[in-house]
Amino acid sequence: MKTVLPDRQQSLVQWVSQATGINTFGVKVRLRGNNLHILCEGTECPQRWHTLSDLLQALQQTDLDILTSDEQPSIYQVFVYGRRKGEQRPNWCHRVYLNQIDKHLEQVQALLEDSEKLKQSAGALIVSNESLARQGNPEAIARYLSETLSTLGVSVQAKIKPYKPKNSQPEENRLWIFCQSSYSPDASLLAEPIAQKLRYLKLTGYQDAVIVSQVSGETAPDWLLRVDLTPPEVMLKEWARWGDIQAIARLLTEVLSGLKVAVQAFLKESTLHIFCSPAFDPLGTAPIPDKEVCLEAILPQLEAIAPQGILAATIYGQKAGDNEPTWIDWVALPATKYPAFATSPLDLANTGDQPAIIFLLERLLNPDLDWRLLTGGVRVLLLNKNDLLHIMCDAPVCPARQQVATKVTQFIRQLKIPGIMGVRVYGRRAGNKEPFWNYGVDIEHRQRLVPEATPEFAATSKYVNDLVTSETSEPILRPDLTTEEVQTFVTEVARDWMTTASATAKKFLLQSQLFIESDQRSAEQSRDVQGLKVALVWGTLGLLLTLQTDWVLGRIIAITTPSPKVASVLPSSYSGQKASLISGKTQSEKTTSFTSTSKTKSSPNQSSVFNASEFTQTDDTPTTNLAAAPLKEKATATAILLAARSQMPSFNVRQLDEQLALYKQRLARTGTPPDVLIIGSSRALRGIDPAALSKALATQGYPNLDVFNFGINGATAQVVDFVIRHVLEPSELPKVIIWADGARAFNGGREDITFKSITASAGYKQAFQKAPTNANNSDSSENTVNSAGEEKIKEEKPEISAYQAVNQSLNQALASLSASYSNRDQIISLLQKLMLIIGRNQTVASQRQLTDGTSDESTSQQAVDFDGFLPLSIRFNPARYYQKHSKVPGNYDNDYKSFQIEGQQDAAFQEVLQFAQSHKISLVFVNMPLTEDYLDPVRRQYEQQFQQYMLRLAISPSFIYRDLSQQWPKANDYFSDPSHLNRFGAYEVSKKLANDPMIPWPVK
């Protein structure tokens, strides 16, 4: 089979063939990273030194970069192989450093003359890349690193860039290592090897190095890595200064290594015990270390170190294995003279001393001293903010949360630092600003939570001012402005504002048709007289039509009014309902309206899951007072009207259309998206109360947050993904999304009825026809359409504003005589029922409602409020509930049919995660509470699978997972059915979420 080589490889093959005289069929080349591999083969294996001599002479006269493409990185090394055709392994291999070709050629020519000189000339001629790299030359450092990375297909380039610190310190040099490859290598694969090789060089003049990994052909770097180039000796001295015994022993061993003396050190109370013995004495004949010599070497070191908390040192001289020392000496350390050195690091940490806390934490997280010196280890950054201690842990490879978080929090808890009531631990890869994971624990109950978004930690701990970002975005006046300039500016702005306001007011009054300009008054007078005559005629006809319609509606209401027998049940239900609601001053009014609505909707011929008496609670319903947010005005009628008038095609799911219409109305009214969006299935729709959440957040330091519930019955992960990424524009999304649902929404093995209906709709097709380039235009046009729709609704009456006063007076006069005006709520209810019956998606809605354990009638009777929330006051009573519903075990539940996490639902969830991370949206998934009746062994097993799945994904920095599935398994009063909360349970969940310290709630 013939292989076609790329052009650059063809030119390299021809060049090698011309240089060595080997046929092109016997030459093969490969470029990997910064290395060029050349294989020479023939019927007989090519002679090593002759081939190398010819090739080296050609390399002296050729620039290999000319033979390669512009995208190919520079070549640092050439590996030449020789073998016989048909053999699998080469007979010989030789590495050539392109920066030392002359020395290679001298060596090869000498070997050609006398092969016996191989040993003598091999080490003398060639200088290793490591030796050159230790001198700090960037090109040599790149060649040194490429020896390891080129085998992985990664090319290396090194540069030195000046770095200006923010604290007015002199400019420093920073080493930048650029790694390029045809694929995206995992940072954990390269981080520690690069860190080890760079730190092994013991470079001077550099504080740190930045590793940049980039895929060939792309402009943005794939990832960054910071390597601490602090020399190991400096690291040892820092720890020894804090009294670390292992570091002190290591320093003293290096000092005494020339004297062939080994050192062991132990700390007892505040005295350091140092044992000096022969470094190597297998036969026991080595002499005991000389006392004077040892003391002369040790004492200056201890004086310079001045270990914290160590008052004295006792030095012993003995042979290894002896029980008694040959000589002893005692010396006082600087801590006896300077009280600041006498306090131990642990005592300092108990007082809140940050350097002491950092040392103790780094010592805790780096138990292996050798590994820390080799790679830089885990570094700790500390930030004390209000009553919280924020701790950032970073390393070349991000520290694992399971290994770090618990250790750190337990240690801080033991310290009992005054004023610290909570700990927040973060982990990241060195060089990143954003953490990869976070973990929080409150040591004491915190009365008031302040905004706790993750503070910004700088990439280096050298500059403390880089750790904290500004918490206010208030504009700052320029200090060079004078008082006169400010006053002049304010006067001009006020004058412009008055002119603009006057013109706007004039335009508004003219458009209302109640006013005209003075020069047009005579011309318009005759036109107004003619218009008045027309208005009187049409007003009379309208009055007759209104009287007739009123009479017809009065007859309909009289027919549909329930019998006295049903009405007689209402007083007790009313009292029970009133006792179950804890609200404000308007409670009596809301309860009265609530009871009358139930009375109107009840019918003896209707069969449903929740009848009128259940809706208002029967006599056997517990009357325990439960806390809940006050009921708000229903919005179903408005949602239906807005959805009908919307220019957006339907999605074949009535509730999605109506929730979207309410959401668009909210956007048009406020001009900005809500601060928090709740989304999910019916468990979200009924399970989180926006009003309760907003109120609870206000008590925790987040006032005036706007919350909207976008719950949709039957919504799966695919439905949520479609709504977030395709229905709503990015500018219409908040910075915090709470996804409330459970395992069954992620079951990829069952049929997704709701999403299937959406995909068959005209709205779905339109959502995917929008071009990405027109995303911004469609966003603005959609907002314009919605705004125009809102204006049309609001200004439908002002279209005849010239006769508005006459119309209103007639309405008020006729209202007192109307037979249907006092029953207008019942009329609206009847119209709602009629629209639901003839709706084109009734079949889909009924199927999902039956699956959720709710009947068509109960759902149609209930109405969401203007926050999108469906408040149900029904309390789950198993004895009564299972009289009307069969108890379906988990292995027969269609929601868990062929349960599997992997599949289309998982793919949709991954899309949502990526979308949230790219748009910097904090996504919080809440696994909603379930009853004990619902969690049978089968469902419990599926829930455990779902838990493991979510915990694996919870390492994402923009994703938070909260499990409340078994929060109240026996609190049936918080549920409306086995798997759905009522308004009382929603109130409790909202409070619990508001008190969660790790959710980054937005701040206004």
Give an account of the 3D structure.
The protein is of the alpha/beta class and 1004 residues long. The chain is built from 37 helices and 23 strands. The strands form six sheets. A five-stranded parallel beta sheet has the order 18-17-19-20-21, with helices on both faces. It has a four-stranded mixed beta sheet with strand order 1-2-3-4, sandwiched between helices. It has a four-stranded mixed beta sheet with strand order 5-6-7-8, with helices on one face. Strand 13 and strand 14 (388-395) form a beta hairpin. The radius of gyration is 40 Å and the shape is extended. The two termini are 69 Å apart.
Poorly predicted sequence stretches spanning 5 or more consecutive residues: 1-5, 116-125, 460-481, 520-524, 562-621, 771-802, 840-861
Which sheet architecture does the biggest sheet show?
A: 5 strands, parallel
In terms of quaternary structure, the protein is single chain
Shape, please? Answer: extended
* Helicity range: 40-55%
Mean pLDDT: 76
Alpha carbon gap, first and last residue: 69 Å
Number-wise, the strands total 23
Radius of gyration, in angstroms, nearest whole number: 40 Å
Please tally the helical runs, counting DSSP H or I stretches of 4 or more residues: 37
Q: What's the arrangement of strands in the largest beta sheet?
A: 18-17-19-20-21
Question: What proportion strand?
Answer: 15-25%
Structural class by sheet pairing and helices? alpha/beta
What's the gist of this structure?
The protein is an alpha/beta fold and 1004 residues long. The chain has a five-stranded parallel β-sheet, sandwiched between helices. Strands 1-2-3-4 form a four-stranded mixed β-sheet, with helices on both faces. The chain has a four-stranded mixed β-sheet with strand order 5-6-7-8, covered by helices on one side.
